[in-house]
Amino acid sequence: MQTSHDPKGLIRESYRIEGISDGECRSILIDWALSLPADTNQHAALEALIAQYGAEANDHPMTALLRAGLATASAPARRRRRRREV
């Protein structure tokens, strides 16, 4: 069953793959992020996915990546200043 937070069911399927590697999870997570509509709140989507899948699979590599993504999504964006040429 797809949800609004996992429109293609990619995250759900990653939890079903026996022996999935960290690298495979990273690839799936990137595909998931690229498939989200532009107006999606990624922070809220990650929280929902962790609540839905991570609670029962705390040691799964996807759970670790979702949590890392949540920490990254929570970090404030840094502004880059343009250097003036002298």
Structure explained in plain terms:
The protein has 86 residues and is an all-alpha fold. The chain has one domain. The chain is built from four helices and no strands. It has helices at 10-16, 22-35, 42-54, 61-74. The mean pLDDT is 86.
Summarize the structure.
Helices cover 56% and strands 0% of the residues. The protein is mainly alpha-helical and 86 residues long.
Blueprint (SSEs and pairs):
Elements: H1 10-16, H2 22-35, H3 42-54, H4 61-74
Helix pairs in contact: 2-4, 3-4
Comma- or semicolon-separated keywords:
about 90 residues; mainly alpha; 4 helices; about 0% strand
What overall geometry do the principal axes of the alpha carbons give? Answer: globular
Given the helix and strand composition, which structural class is it?
mainly alpha
How many strands appear in the DSSP assignment? 0
**Percent range of helical residues:** 55-70%
Low-confidence segments: none
What count of domains describes the coordinates? 1
What is the residue-mean pLDDT, rounded to a whole number?
86
Counting DSSP H or I runs of 4 or more residues, the number of helices is 4
